[in-house]
């Protein structure tokens, strides 16, 4: 039972006719995702050819959902149009909206996330790589070939580290990998995904990747201590980051004594999470945990 998406997920691509939307739609289709259409205002009735199969373009999310019954959308539109795109998805009562776009003003994100929460639409992102359940569905920009199916659940702020961890653990595979994004405000949090993995019978071990800035990892640590019984392995990026300078993501900034990698590592370890010092060492901790699980079940 994959987390948030499955082989039956019906996906619309907002911004499919643009360069990035077209490129990643092709990649999603090749990895088995059910792409039912694209949405671009003013282009209703057109189509885009992928592998000799035309995918229809709709002028609005309302039109697209009515025609296809889609339950997932993925947003590949420029930052200045992102708020309108997500609000349109929310108004169309889409169940899951994955926002790949980076550089969205925080005020815009707050506005569409508030609307989404009120309506029941789950938003992943913004500024995220999306999510993948290998062999079932891939919504976003995560390369499908780097890892196969398995029983590891991965939640990460960083797209690049998502890819690296999936590749490092390709010998075991993943139930689902979710990139939640590194902006100061995101729709789906570490805690949301941790609970989803806890409830998922096809996930045995959880990997959580965080980074400097904010207190999301500390809050996740408290939640793990109180609610998560499956093994959790962690990694925190940014041990050498200088205070006061953003590192990659808008939310990855140390302010004063808050948000340091050391403080996050300490909080996670206090909650029983094993934390690796590098991605490769973290992957080895996961392999060790898998071996221990198998030994305890034999």
TrEMBL record:
<dbReference type="InterPro" id="IPR033847">
    <property type="entry name" value="Citrt_syn/SCS-alpha_CS"/>
</dbReference>
<feature type="domain" description="CoA-binding">
    <location>
        <begin position="4"/>
        <end position="104"/>
    </location>
</feature>
<dbReference type="Pfam" id="PF00549">
    <property type="entry name" value="Ligase_CoA"/>
</dbReference>
<dbReference type="GO" id="GO:0000166">
    <property type="term" value="F:nucleotide binding"/>
</dbReference>
<comment type="function">
    <text>Succinyl-CoA synthetase functions in the citric acid cycle (TCA), coupling the hydrolysis of succinyl-CoA to the synthesis of either ATP or GTP and thus represents the only step of substrate-level phosphorylation in the TCA. The alpha subunit of the enzyme binds the substrates coenzyme A and phosphate, while succinate binding and nucleotide specificity is provided by the beta subunit.</text>
</comment>
<dbReference type="GO" id="GO:0009361">
    <property type="term" value="C:succinate-CoA ligase complex (ADP-forming)"/>
</dbReference>
<dbReference type="GO" id="GO:0004776">
    <property type="term" value="F:succinate-CoA ligase (GDP-forming) activity"/>
</dbReference>
<protein>
    <recommendedName>
        <fullName>Succinate--CoA ligase [ADP-forming] subunit alpha</fullName>
        <ecNumber>6.2.1.5</ecNumber>
    </recommendedName>
</protein>
<dbReference type="InterPro" id="IPR005811">
    <property type="entry name" value="SUCC_ACL_C"/>
</dbReference>
<comment type="pathway">
    <text>Carbohydrate metabolism; tricarboxylic acid cycle; succinate from succinyl-CoA (ligase route): step 1/1.</text>
</comment>
<dbReference type="InterPro" id="IPR005810">
    <property type="entry name" value="CoA_lig_alpha"/>
</dbReference>
<keyword id="KW-0547">Nucleotide-binding</keyword>
<dbReference type="GO" id="GO:0005829">
    <property type="term" value="C:cytosol"/>
</dbReference>
<feature type="binding site">
    <location>
        <position position="163"/>
    </location>
    <ligand>
        <name>substrate</name>
    </ligand>
</feature>
<dbReference type="GO" id="GO:0004775">
    <property type="term" value="F:succinate-CoA ligase (ADP-forming) activity"/>
</dbReference>
<keyword id="KW-0436">Ligase</keyword>
<feature type="binding site">
    <location>
        <begin position="100"/>
        <end position="102"/>
    </location>
    <ligand>
        <name>CoA</name>
    </ligand>
</feature>
<dbReference type="InterPro" id="IPR016102">
    <property type="entry name" value="Succinyl-CoA_synth-like"/>
</dbReference>
<keyword id="KW-0816">Tricarboxylic acid cycle</keyword>
<dbReference type="InterPro" id="IPR003781">
    <property type="entry name" value="CoA-bd"/>
</dbReference>
<dbReference type="GO" id="GO:0006099">
    <property type="term" value="P:tricarboxylic acid cycle"/>
</dbReference>
<dbReference type="Pfam" id="PF02629">
    <property type="entry name" value="CoA_binding"/>
</dbReference>
<feature type="active site" description="Tele-phosphohistidine intermediate">
    <location>
        <position position="249"/>
    </location>
</feature>
<dbReference type="InterPro" id="IPR017440">
    <property type="entry name" value="Cit_synth/succinyl-CoA_lig_AS"/>
</dbReference>
<dbReference type="InterPro" id="IPR036291">
    <property type="entry name" value="NAD(P)-bd_dom_sf"/>
</dbReference>
<feature type="binding site">
    <location>
        <position position="43"/>
    </location>
    <ligand>
        <name>CoA</name>
    </ligand>
</feature>
<comment type="similarity">
    <text>Belongs to the succinate/malate CoA ligase alpha subunit family.</text>
</comment>
<feature type="binding site">
    <location>
        <begin position="17"/>
        <end position="20"/>
    </location>
    <ligand>
        <name>CoA</name>
    </ligand>
</feature>
<comment type="subunit">
    <text>Heterotetramer of two alpha and two beta subunits.</text>
</comment>
């Amino acid at each position: 039972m994959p987390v948030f998406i499955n082989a039956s997920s019906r996906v619309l691509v907002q911004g499919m006719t643009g360069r990035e939307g077209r490129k990643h739609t092709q990649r999603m289709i090749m990895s088995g995702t059910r792409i039912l259409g694209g949405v671009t205002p003013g282009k209703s009735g057109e189509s885009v050819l992928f592998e000799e199969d035309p995918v229809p373009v709709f002028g609005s999310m309302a039109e697209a959902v009515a025609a296809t019954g889609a339950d997932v959308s993925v947003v590949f539109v420029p930052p200045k149009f992102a708020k309108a795109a997500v609000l349109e998805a929310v108004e169309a009562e889409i169940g899951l909206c994955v926002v790949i776009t980076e550089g969205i003003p925080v005020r815009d994100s707050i506005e569409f996330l508030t609307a989404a929460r009120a309506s029941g639409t789950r938003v992943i992102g913004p500024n995220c790589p999306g999510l993948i359940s290998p062999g079932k569905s891939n919504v976003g920009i995560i390369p499908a070939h780097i890892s196969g199916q398995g029983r590891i659940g991965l939640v990460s702020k960083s797209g690049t580290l998502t890819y690296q961890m999936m590749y490092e653990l390709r010998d075991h595979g993943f139930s689902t990998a979710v990139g939640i994004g590194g902006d100061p405000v995101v729709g789906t949090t570490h805690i949301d995904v941790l609970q989803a993995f806890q409830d998922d019978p096809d996930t045995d071990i959880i990997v959580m990747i965080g980074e400097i800035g904010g207190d999301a990892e500390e809050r996740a640590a408290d939640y793990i201590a109180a609610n998560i019984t499956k093994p959790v392995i962690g990694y925190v990026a940014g041990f050498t980051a200088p205070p006061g300078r953003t590192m990659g993501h808008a939310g990855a900034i140390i302010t004063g004594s808050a948000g340091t990698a050391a403080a996050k590592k300490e909080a996670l370890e206090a909650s029983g999470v094993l934390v690796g010092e590098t991605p490769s060492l973290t992957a080895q901790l996961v392999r060790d945990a898998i071996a221990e699980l198998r030994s305890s079940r034999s």
